[in-house]
Structures are given as structure tokens and as C-alpha cells.
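Crash report, auto-generated. Payload:
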Amino acid sequence: MPNNNQTALHAGLHRGIAELGLSVDSDTEQKLIDYLQLLVKWNKVYNLTAIRDPQQMVSYHLLDSLAVLPHLQAGRWLDVGCGAGLPGLVLAICRPDWSVTLLDSNSKKTGFVQQAIIELGLHNAQVRCARVEDVDASQKYSGIISRAFTELGDFLRVTRHLMADDGHWVAMKGLPDKELPGVPKDCTVLKIIPLKVPGLDAARCLVIAKPGEPHD
Ligand SMILES: C[S@@+](CC[C@H](N)C(=O)[O-])C[C@H]1O[C@@H](n2cnc3c(N)ncnc32)[C@H](O)[C@@H]1O
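Recovered output after restart:
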């Protein structure tokens, strides 16, 4: 039987999903809440995220990650600097037919992500603890995503060896304008998409980029 707190979390998530215009079935919504509750529990001991209020986590973590979904294509995804699993675990929960690899150099965070993958039964997700610069290029990804990882140019540079020739980067940013001059010459920014995330006042944008020089 859900308690009042759980009911409020469900209501906030359900409302936000409707505002985003997404279609998410009730089992998936429950899994998102289960993930959030695991995060709340582990955060008390391991300090995984500075956002501690579960209601705030709905907007800052779940809805912020969900807002990206309509702009992504199916494929092999890598979430670089995933921290406590954002946005990678949200993608894996909502898109069970996509493969999602989550990567972080902090073993405390990847330990949590591993536990969440097991407890949530996410057969399409895997986690690795490594610095992205040290990951060998034997496996390429059709999509590489990050949130709050590093400046745009650095993100593209340090993940370039893992990107498939026809793949795309997706950087979740505030206002990216100042970072655009730092984009490497062998990468092209295709689109900057402003997002409205329910419950967040701050500007949110997606920067979509691809390998290759402009106009090639
Ligand atoms: C600010 S946190 C963002 C976490 C998560 N993406 C989010 O939005 O909540 C940045 C994460 O990047 C990881 N990180 C920093 N440098 C890294 C590197 N070179 N390779 C892999 N992970 C790295 C850190 O350990 C940290 O967990």
C-alpha cells in the first residue's frame, strides 16, 4: 500500500510526464519511482547527489532526463559521467529495447548504479567504472550522452574514440552558447534544442552533434 509520500511522488511524476507530452505506461512509471526511492535511500549514506528532497528529485533528475527522450534514436547508448545513473538509468527504464552503458570514474557511484540495475531488473543496462579517456575503442556507440559532465568541447574530444561514424552526441546543458567556440574542428553541432522541464526554472538545452567537419 503506497504511503502519502509515495502518492505525492507518483502524482508529481505523472503530471510532469503529461506536461512533457510523453506516453509512459504505469509499470515504467513505477520503476522510475523505485529508482528514485533507491537513490533517496543510498544518498543518505553515500552522498550521491546534492538534491536530497524526493519531490525535487522528480523534477531535477527524473523529468529532466525524461525530457530528452523524444530527441533520441534507438541504438547503443553510452552515458558518460553518469553519476548516480542520470540520465542513463532513466533511458534504460523507459527504453528496454535500447542498450545503455553507464560509465563513471567514481566507484561509489558505479556501485550504486550496479545495485540499481540488479534491483530494477534492467537487462539492457550495464555499468563500468573507468575514466572515459581510458576506455578502449573496440566498442563504438551510436549515441553518447552526458549531463553535467564537462564543457561541450571536452565532452566531444574525450569521447571521440568511442563514437560510431554515423552516431550522435547529446549534451544536456544549461545555456551552451559560450561553449560552442570550443567544439573541435572534426565535429559538427547539428542542433540546439531548448527544453522546458516541469518544475525547473533554469534554462535547459540539448546540444546534438555528430562526427565530421561541417558541410562534409
Ligand atoms: C556533476 S556529475 C554528473 C552526474 C550525472 N550525470 C548527473 O547529471 O547527475 C559528473 C560525473 O562525471 C564523473 N567524471 C568526471 N570525469 C570523468 C571521466 N574522465 N571519466 C568518467 N567519469 C568522469 C564524476 O565522477 C561525476 O560522477
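Post-recovery validation: The radius of gyration is 17 Å.
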